[in-house]
Every structure is written in C-alpha cells, then in structure tokens.
Amino acid sequence: MRATVAIIDTEQLRRNFRLLRRHVEPAAVLAIVKANAYGHGLVECAELFRQEGAAMLGVAYVQEGIQLRQAGNPLPIVVLTPPQADEAALYCRFELQPLACSLPVMEQMAAQARRFGVRLRVHVAVDTGMHREGIPPSEVRDFLQRLSELEGLEVVGLCTHFATADEADPSFFWEQWRQFRDLVRELEAAGYHIPYIHAANSAAAVRFPEARWTMVRPGILLYGYQPWQGGEKLPVKPVLQWKSRVVAVRRIRSGEGVSYHRLYRARQETTIVTVPVGYADGYRYGLTGRAECLIHGKRFPVVGAICMDEILVDVGQEPVQLGDEVVLLGEQGESALWAEELACWLRTIPYEVLAGISSRVPRLYLQAQVDATEQLSSTLARV
Ligand SMILES: Cc1ncc(COP(=O)(O)O)c(C=O)c1O
User: Is the confidence at residue 202, as pLDDT, over 60?
Assistant: First the structure.
C-alpha cells in the first residue's frame, strides 16, 4: 500500500451527521455526496448516511448515481445538475431523480419512463437568483401544469439554491428566500402538494430555520467544516486526515537548491526530506513556496517546486528518520493543520482542497468501537 493515505474517521462523520440532523429536525436531510463525497469516498459515506437516516442523497452527475446503485444503495438519489436528454434511459434504469428545468428534456424523460414502464420522480428547480439552473419563479406554475400532462413523471420536489447563505450580509439571501417562499405559498394555495421542498445548503440550514422547509441539503458541514464564519456554529469536526511518510532523508549544504528550477535555496546546512505525494494526488502545484506540513508534531516548510509525485520538506536540524509520519492535513501531537489553511495558501476554498484529493490516494476508514489513535497507528504501521 502507498505511504500516502487519506484516513476517514467514520465515527466523526456519524457525529457530524447526527448534530446536523438534530439541529434541523423535523426537516429531512438530503446528504450531499457529490465529488466523491467531497473527497471522503462516495460509496462509503453514502452508506453511512443511509444508516443514519438520510432521506436522500445528492450527486452532481448521473455516473455518481450509477456508482451508488451498483454498490447497492437504495436511497432516493437526486442528480443536482441539469439532465441531458440522452441520459434519460439511465435515469429510468437506475432510478435516479433529475432536476426538471427544461420542458423538451422532460418530454424525453417521460417518453423513456413510459418505455421502461416506470414513474420517474423529478424535482422542479427554481432559479431565484443564483442563475445556474432552474426556471424563473413566474414560470413555475405553467411548467408544473405542462409536466402534469406528461405521463410517466411525478413531481416529488421543488428546490432552489442560495448564492450567498454563507456571507455576512444576508440581504441577497433574504431576496432569494422571499421569492421561493412566495412561490411555495402560491403553489400550496393552488392545491399543489409537493412533498420535498428544499433549498438550504449547510450555511442556510444552520443559520436560517426559515429556509429549511421539508428537507435540507448539507455538504461541507457533514465533512466537518464550518460553512460560514460568523454567529451560530455546530461543533462538527473534520473527518479526513491526509498523511504520508518520509521516504528519503539527505543533508544539503548552504546555498544548494532543491526540486525543479531550484526555486528554494538553503540558507545554511540543513536536512531535506522527501514525501511521496504530489500534484497528481491533489497536493497542488500552486502550493509551491507556500505550504507547511507536520512532522514530530512541529510545522516545517514544504520547499521548492511541488512535483507530480513528491514534495520536499526542510526540517532544519530536526532528527527526522525514514518512515516518520508526515501530516499534510490533520493532527499530530498538539499541532493541527486543516483544509482552511491549505485553502488559504492556495487562495481557494476548503471544498476544492478536499474534493481535489485524487483517486490515487487510498482512503482508509477508521471504524467504530476501537480506539481511534490505536487504530490509526496500526493502520499506518501497515502502509
Ligand atoms: C445544489 C446544491 N445543494 C447543496 C450543496 C451543499 O452545499 P454545502 O457544501 O455548502 O453545504 C451544494 C454544493 O455545492 C449544491 O450544489
């Protein structure tokens, strides 16, 4: 097995889910597992959320839904990007629920559903201001009428997505919220009964009880990251640690350079260690000259250009040995380093850091009822 692994604490994932579920009750939870469950493992996380009582799962693409079906996950699965007509048969065959946001596409979906002899459940997507997908609120009633004339479809959901629920200034959030609320009221008054009304991502689910309706759609919070920086927070904790080991140790003289283009020069004689992780694993080239990692519970700079498969760390005079643990993301002794920090070095967001840990990095799942530290060290001893 590779020395570089992503370790997923399934008990912490469970705790995060429970904290969120209790917080939003009686709203149901659609757990977002797209992008390999934000890097944490699509099939494994989806199964845990199923055990914990998630009502539905959210993916971005049909292929992710098919992967879940092939792994035997029976939960309703909503595909959260606009469907393409040529995917209609896959939606029907694998019982995936599309967003309804185009009549011609829905006509094709309905035709396939009749061919397959199934009723395809769909969620009408409403564009309240994000302008990414969905139809304007003013067109929803007419759209619903047209959908009801298509045999083979059943509207089970009405949804929108907030663009700014994590911003300090909530004014645009409330604009979107008002539009959606008015639409929900109008449809109720017109006699529509749509069981799943959903809009809230993690930030909205925590901050705005008014935005929960019958179901919420959290992602980042389940994986242990705060969706917004102000006010009320749930005490979730990160679930994924990214660890490796030292595979080479060398002394270099003052003035010598390391890695491609010798971007970094030693100011004094020092020890450089090699760690087998690189940009092909998601440890991005953009971290060149900016990152730190943990060894022996201390922070050391990652130096020189990030390579495809390796990075170099200047550990100074620290007596680092072959095989010593290196933490890229996670905890070691009293020190910790989480995705917010990597995101800051990369001028990006924690979502991208987590989702960017590539499939080349093996995922290890720490199970319940065993001392986590013990399990972690025995797992790492095997790699
Ligand atoms: C449609 C939709 N709903 C919910 C989410 C979850 O967002 P978050 O991870 O901020 O909770 C996303 C994520 O981007 C999304 O695209």
Answer: yes
Residue 236 corresponds to which tokens in the numbers above?
A: 């979730």
Digit-coded pLDDT (tens) for 12-32: 999 999 999 999 999 999 999
Domain containing 17 equals: 10-216
Atom of ligand 1 nearest to the CA of 165: 10
CATH number at residue 326: 2.40.37.10
Do 187 and 74 fall into the same domain? yes
Mean pLDDT over 197-214 rounds to: 97
Residues 164/173, Cβ–Cβ less than 8 Å:
yes
Separation of 132 CA from ligand 1 center, angstroms?
13
Task: Report if residue 353 sits inside a domain.
Answer: no
Residue among 16, 32, 221 to mutate when testing ligand 1 (max atoms within 8 A of CB)? 32
Q: Is 224 in the pocket of ligand 1 (CB under 6 A)?
A: no
One-letter amino acid at 261 equals: H
Is 176 in contact with 163 (CB distance < 8 Å)? yes
Q: Is 41 in the pocket of ligand 1 (CB under 6 A)?
A: no
Q: Is 350 in the pocket of ligand 1 (CB under 6 A)?
A: no
| Atom number of ligand 1 nearest to Cα 34 | 13
Q: Tell me if 187 is assigned to some domain.
A: yes
Instruction: Give the mean pLDDT of 170-183.
Output: 98
134 within ligand 1 shell (Cβ under 6 A):
no
Sort 241 into a burial class: Cβ within 10 Å, 0-12 / 13-18 / 19+: buried
261 membership: H or E segment, kind and range: none
State the catalytic residues: 34, 260
Pocket lining: 218 vs ligand 1, CB cutoff 6 Å: yes
pLDDT value at position 383? 45
Q: How far is the CA of 218 from the centre of ligand 1 (A)?
A: 6
Specify the ligand 1 atom closest to the Cα of 205: 11
Reported as a single tens digit per residue, the pLDDT across 59-77 is 999 999 999 999 999 999 9
pLDDT of residue 378: 57
pLDDT tens-digit map of 114-129? 999 999 999 999 999 9
β-strands 270-275, 153-159: how paired? Answer: unpaired
How many Å apart are CA 79 and CA 83, to the nearest integer? 8
